[in-house]
Design goal:
Elements lengths: L2 H21 L7 E6 L3 H17 L9 E6 L7 H11 L3 E4 L2 H10 L5 E3 L21 E3 L8 H11 L5 E6 L4 H17 L2 E6 L6 H10 L4 E4 L9 H10 L4 E3 L2 H5 L4 E5 L1 H16 L15 E6 H6 L6 H4 L4 E3 L1
Helix pairs in contact: 2-10, 3-4, 5-6
């Protein structure tokens, strides 16, 4: 074959090979939306735990997965717009950071899979049909928060045996609150503690509720889970310190802000496990067929600096249960 002809043949072959490669369909990179009702500065640790979970499953952001976070900054009325944006973008999965964002996602779409990062009572609120068979497009993790209120009160009593009156801050508009209060009342009867329920529906009303606790001569404080309370965690901790009230909270963020102790389902573990649900869905599983998981890891976090400032000595029996101690 003459040289010019040979060059033409080689060039043609290369062109055909290039066309064959470019003609192959590009693999779609899944897009995951993560939505929180709280501010990003408050729940950044939870978001990072989810991203870590995805990395552990082999996902690399920017290469085979895109993860986008949105925050409502404690303004629940912003959630529908945030969810609607993701629905328009047709993301592959929506991960929700709590009950408020899950409700907004449920109302926005019945087709995009939704994974709950944490939800205190998904059955009671009608988010899912049952834990075993959630049905619809929603599954994920439940924190079973209402059932642990008794344990929280018992721990509080153990570090402050003289407690006889405890103020309980809760949001009566949330379905899990009634059950939490029942569990706390049951434990209070055994512990000979009188509870003072205080209804905090709007986080901006925290000063009024704290003043009621002071006027009621509360000797301790128990905060029941509510997304809006996180925005006031520093103020509540300051109040507890100023009035020398041993305090128990539902999540670690309160203790990091100066609160005495927290006991509840591990938020980091929960959001890491949410990644497992996302992975299964991306591989073809239907949310309706994935049972809602109850927490397997609970954590007790104690702020020793706060304990010392309150003049409390944490009993060895409680220290042995602590998963994390903040010095």
């Amino acid at each position: 074959m003459k040289r010019p002809l040979r060059l033409i043949v080689i060039a043609s072959a290369l062109a055909l090979a290039s066309f064959s490669v470019s003609a192959q369909p590009q693999q779609k990179v899944p897009r995951i939306a993560v939505v929180f009702a709280a501010a990003g500065t408050v729940v950044q640790g939870r978001f990072e735990a989810f991203r870590q979970g995805m990395r552990e499953l082999g996902y690399v952001e920017g290469k085979n997965i895109v993860i986008e976070g949105r925050y409502a900054d404690n303004q629940a009325d912003r959630l529908p717009a945030l969810i609607a944006e993701f629905a328009r973008l047709k993301v592959d999965v929506i991960v929700t950071g709590g009950s408020a964002s899950t409700r907004a996602a449920k109302e926005a779409t019945s087709t995009i899979p939704i994974v709950m990062g944490r939800d205190a009572d998904p059955v009671g609120t009608g988010i899912v049909a049952s834990l075993a068979r959630p049905g619809g497009n929603i599954t994920g993790l439940s924190t079973i928060a209402p059932q642990i209120a008794g344990k929280q009160l018992a721990l509080l009593k153990e570090i402050a045996p003289g407690l006889s009156r405890v103020a309980v801050i809760a949001n009566s508009t949330q379905s899990a609150t009634a059950q939490s209060l029942k569990e706390a009342e049951r434990a209070a009867a055994k512990l000979r503690v009188r509870l003072q329920p205080l209804d905090l529906r709007n986080p901006q009303d925290v000063e009024t509720v704290l003043e009621a606790a002071r006027e009621g001569r509360a000797q301790g404080l128990l905060v029941v889970t509510s997304f809006g309370f996180l925005s006031q965690r520093t103020r509540i901790a300051e109040f507890s310190m100023k009035n020398r009230l041993p305090s128990m909270y539902p999540t670690v963020e309160y203790v990091e802000a100066g609160g005495l102790m927290a006991y509840g389902a591990s938020t980091a573990d929960g959001f890491r496990r949410a990644a497992i649900y996302v992975d299964k869905i991306l591989k073809g599983a239907r949310p309706a067929d994935l049972p809602v998981e109850q927490p397997t890891k609970f954590e007790l976090v104690i702020n020793m600096k706060t304990a010392k400032a309150l003049g409390l000595t944490i009993p060895p029996s409680v220290m042995l249960q602590a998963d994390r101690v903040i010095e």
